[in-house]
């Protein structure tokens, strides 16, 4: 089997687990956050920078790489790891999410999806078989089944028909998978925010027997309470000996809440996207270092932070770079935000090992929410900009 | 004295010298090329990357830092070295060149120059005293006198009046310099492309006795032959025990030709600017790796090159990054081009030491010019884009 997940420890107080994912490109400690390298590069960073901040697995996007530079070219280059010079593990999504969120004029049939490229308007067709062919060519350690990610809100009737098609597509993906010995194919549970549909989807997808399971169709605009409820319904239906991956989730509080509800893997563009707007994570919420109030602030972004940006540069310098549109500014904020999430997961793993995750979660969330609330109400300097949608 | 230049060896066949510049931030082997960090950052690179490619001195721009973030802020931060986290030496220009090339509505008087900011149109005044005040605040190891850089072509009468004002300004700069023990102030020879004016300017500026001398007002559009002629007239008039700096010059062939004519220091934005258009230096001329012909070329930019980009990435990957507008692409091309020039200077120094610089120059220029000519006439793949003005 290409990928094996090993359970190390269960949390007595929650669904959380401490585990270890064995892949052809190294061992990944879980729970884990995976930085996103959409176009075969984590935006603004070199692979060494991603590695040095502690990431050992990254995500890349099938839809984007299929359109540009093309999966045949990546295969010719020796696969995605070689092409982009990344020594760690890689997970590729199936392109389903982007087909439904980025492309134009899409038409869904039982066979697959016709769509037009967001780059040049050219016509394309993705099916379960085609998505797997692309993912086999890219050669990631973990590949995802081709699913339909329904928007929120979504009618019950449509969500049901969609999840049933996603199940049929998952079976076709499994049949089409040509490299099961070197790439693990994960199934994806859908069902929008309907408890009965989540149960139906989980049962159907688990029945197909995948080496890992993802929960898709969440963090697409629904209230957090609904997301938590869906996790609480879905996770117990997934086999306890397989890794569980919550797709497109990556704000600090969502990571903590996801682990609490039994999630082992996360990915999100949020840390790198807000970094490019000059917004950074702190233990007490988000701060926009681009703001004028930091012009003469010679402190690091976060005091005591061990990231490259905080060890070497002041808020004043980083703000100067952002105002002057110098790329190093985007890079320093990206490094800080990714290191913040990678360290958060390190702390969560340590708390799980020490049997004090419940306490860690309580303290982290209390500090985070109080700070975010204070910024929202103006009680605290440095209001963050409005939250961006947390797309994959 | 803040800076001392030590002569190591003279070339028997030319005006070239092998030397060593002792500064408060390290020893610089000369001849040397200085990467440009206009806004307190070498565009797209971290200080570690600039250091790792072998640079030990960089240039930064007084005009830009004065306007943004402001020299007071940089002084508060502990000076430019601390602000930008650069452990090596720094040279700042005086702002003269940018005032005459970038700003709007400038008005020159004997006292100084009134101009409007290219960023926000605000009104400013730079004089010799103000430029030195700013350079003292920035704290570079080498600072430049405030001069007028005349455009090309330029009337003899105007060039003469301008160089005489530049001389008077140089004397005022020297009088205003508040930190001669930690910062070396270099004088600048002007005189456009008139032999008599270059002689007059050199005599006047040398008479003021500076620890180093720059040649300004060249590489501003004049034919190469004229630049060479002006160097051949000016260099012998400069004291043999002081470093000589040719401002704004940085194409590979100009570096070789400049060293041949007795120049010790160079700077130019060319390597990083063309990198951002996907154009890279090769021993046989420039190549645009962004071109379609490199889509499936899995060779490094330059075979055998020891730079980070060539050791780890293919032309195909770098082209993909450039097409996808990913910043890592600009960074890899910038690293290659800067390493190319830094290595060129290493090779020149080694050739000088071995007494074979004449041979090195002949071989380098013959290969370079043949390749450039072949690309121009289409005899060779990969036509470079039209040459950009080689501004500082």
From TrEMBL, chains A, B:
Keywords: Glycosyltransferase, Metal-binding, Queuosine biosynthesis, Transferase, tRNA processing, Zinc
Annotated EC: 2.4.2.29
Similarity comment text for this entry: Belongs to the queuine tRNA-ribosyltransferase family.
Cofactor(s) this protein cannot do without: Zn(2+)
Organism: Symbiobacterium terraclitae
HAMAP family per the UniProt record, alphabetical: Q_tRNA_Tgt
Active site residues of this protein: 93 (proton acceptor), 267 (nucleophile)
InterPro entries: ArchSynthase1/Queuine_TRR, TGT, TGT-like_sf, tRNA_ribo_trans-like
Chain residues that bind substrate: 93-97, 147, 190, 217
Catalysed reactions, as listed in the record: 7-aminomethyl-7-carbaguanine + guanosine(34) in tRNA = 7-aminomethyl-7-carbaguanosine(34) in tRNA + guanine
Function: Catalyzes the base-exchange of a guanine (G) residue with the queuine precursor 7-aminomethyl-7-deazaguanine (PreQ1) at position 34 (anticodon wobble position) in tRNAs with GU(N) anticodons (tRNA-Asp, -Asn, -His and -Tyr). Catalysis occurs through a double-displacement mechanism. The nucleophile active site attacks the C1' of nucleotide 34 to detach the guanine base from the RNA, forming a covalent enzyme-RNA intermediate. The proton acceptor active site deprotonates the incoming PreQ1, allowing a nucleophilic attack on the C1' of the ribose to form the product.
UniProt pathway annotation: tRNA modification; tRNA-queuosine biosynthesis
Assembly, per entry: Homodimer. Within each dimer, one monomer is responsible for RNA recognition and catalysis, while the other monomer binds to the replacement base PreQ1.
Domain named tRNA-guanine(15) transglycosylase-like: residues: 15-368
Example of a GO MF term: glycosyltransferase activity
Residues annotated for Zn(2+) binding in this entry: 305, 307, 310, 336
Gene: tgt
Protein name: Queuine tRNA-ribosyltransferase
């Amino acid at each position: 089997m290409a990928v094996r997940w090993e359970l190390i420890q269960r949390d007595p107080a929650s669904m959380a687990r401490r585990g270890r994912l064995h892949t052809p490109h190294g061992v990944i400690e879980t729970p884990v956050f995976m930085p996103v390298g959409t176009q075969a590069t984590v935006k603004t960073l070199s692979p060494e920078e991603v590695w040095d901040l502690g990431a050992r697995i990254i995500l890349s996007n099938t839809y984007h790489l299929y359109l540009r530079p093309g999966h045949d070219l990546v295969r010719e280059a020796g696969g995605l790891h070689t092409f982009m010079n990344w020594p760690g593990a890689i997970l590729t999504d199936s392109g389903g999410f982007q087909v439904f969120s980025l492309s134009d004029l899409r038409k869904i049939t039982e066979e697959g999806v016709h769509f037009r490229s967001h780059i040049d308007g050219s016509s394309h067709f993705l099916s379960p078989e085609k998505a797997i062919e692309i993912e086999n060519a890219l050669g990631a350690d973990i590949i995802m089944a081709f699913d339909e990610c329904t928007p929120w809100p979504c009618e019950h009737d449509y969500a049901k028909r969609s999840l049933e098609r996603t199940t049929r597509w998952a079976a076709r993906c499994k049949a089409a998978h040509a490299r099961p010995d070197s790439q693990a194919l994960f199934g994806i549970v859908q069902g929008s925010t309907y408890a009965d549909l989540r149960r139906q989807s989980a049962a159907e997808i688990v029945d197909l027997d995948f080496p890992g399971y993802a929960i898709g169709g969440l963090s697409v605009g629904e209230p957090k309470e609904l997301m938590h409820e869906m996790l609480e319904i879905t996770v117990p239906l997934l086999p306890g000996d397989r890794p569980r991956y919550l797709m497109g989730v990556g704000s600090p509080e969502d990571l903590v809440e996801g682990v609490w509800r039994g999630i082992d893997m996360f990915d999100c563009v949020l840390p790198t996207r807000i970094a490019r707007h000059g917004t950074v994570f702190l233990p007490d919420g988000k701060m926009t270092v681009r703001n004028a109030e930091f012009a003469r602030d010679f402190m690091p972004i976060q005091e005591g932070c061990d990231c490259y940006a905080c060890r070497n540069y002041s808020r004043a310098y980083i703000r100067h770079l952002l105002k002057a549109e110098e790329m190093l500014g985007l890079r320093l904020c990206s490094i800080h935000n990714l290191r913040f999430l990678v360290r958060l997961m390190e702390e969560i793993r340590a708390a799980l090992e020490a049997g004090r995750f419940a306490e860690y979660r309580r303290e982290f969330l209390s500090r985070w929410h109080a700070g975010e609330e204070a910024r929202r109400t103006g009680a605290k300097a440095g209001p963050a900009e409005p939250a961006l949608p947390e797309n994959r």
